[in-house]
Design goal:
alpha+beta; 2 helices; Archease, Possible Chaperone, Chain: A, domain 1; 3-stranded antiparallel beta sheet; globular
């Protein structure tokens, strides 16, 4: 992790929600970006991890892979009604000009009565999107449309 040991932090944005996620590896920064996004929706500490989803995605570049990863998790929340609390990215590979991610997301079936959500996220955007290698590892900046 980097930026004084933080997993992520929220930044000021006029209309949407912007955050930066940190990690020692690309895999860790993707995990922490997912955690930051789900903590916008709900307090992830209140969620059990009894439901798992395997995720495999391919994208033309690392930035698109991050957007696709977060968008897939948001899709699973909206369609399968699963809220996630933990993310395990096994690997991110670059091969033949494409990036791929193999990961697992752990959470539980969403129940509005016991788990009221805080903020609805409409979409993950490319606005101000950045993924950079830093002296401490990796940093990703993401803006989500609310």
């Amino acid at each position: 992790m980097s930026s004084q040991g933080k997993q992520y932090e929220y930044l000021d944005h006029t209309a949407d929600i912007k955050f930066q996620a940190y990690g020692k590896t690309r895999e860790e920064v993707f995990e922490n970006a997912a955690l930051a996004m789900f903590n916008v929706i709900i307090d992830t500490k209140k969620i059990s991890g009894d439901t798992a989803r395997e995720i495999f995605l391919k994208s033309p570049d690392l930035e698109s892979l991050l957007v696709d990863w977060l968008s897939e998790l948001l899709y699973l929340f909206e369609v399968d009604e699963i809220v996630f609390r933990e993310f395990r990215v096994d690997n991110i590979r670059e091969e033949n000009g494409e990036y791929s991610i193999t990961a697992q997301a752990l959470g539980e079936k969403y129940d509005l009565k016991s788990l009221p959500f805080e903020t609805e996220i409409k979409a993950v955007t490319y606005n101000q999107l950045e993924i950079t290698k830093t002296a401490d590892g990796w940093k990703a900046q993401v803006v989500v449309d609310i």
